[in-house]
Write a structure and sequence with these properties.
There is one protein chain. It is built from three helices and no strands. By secondary structure, it is mainly α. It has a domain at about 5-55.
Length: about 90
């Protein structure tokens, strides 16, 4: 059985159990995950997310922040150079 077949067999219930196991470091029966099991479960969770969830709901997603370029208050990139004003 290859990884694709395994991932196709992962149900939402199995996904939640794998995700919880990675979060707490234990299987539902209380046994501790080995480092290899944790890495494999995390890989399965991330892969499941990428195939079944929108980007903003995936594990590890960080929404981009609106930022200011060169002191702009509108978030637009300034075309002309703007001198820096040092404040003490």
């Amino acid at each position: 059985m290859d990884i694709e077949q395994v991932l196709q067999a992962v149900t939402p219930d199995v996904y939640e159990k794998l995700k919880l196991a990675v979060e707490i470091g234990k299987w539902p029966d209380g046994r501790k995950l080995t480092a290899e099991q944790k890495a494999t479960c995390l890989q399965a969770v991330i892969t499941y997310d990428s195939q079944h969830k929108p980007e903003d709901e995936r594990i590890g997603f960080i929404a981009p922040k609106k930022h200011q370029h060169c002191g702009s208050t509108t978030g637009e990139i300034a075309e002309a150079e703007k001198p820096l004003k040092w404040q003490h």
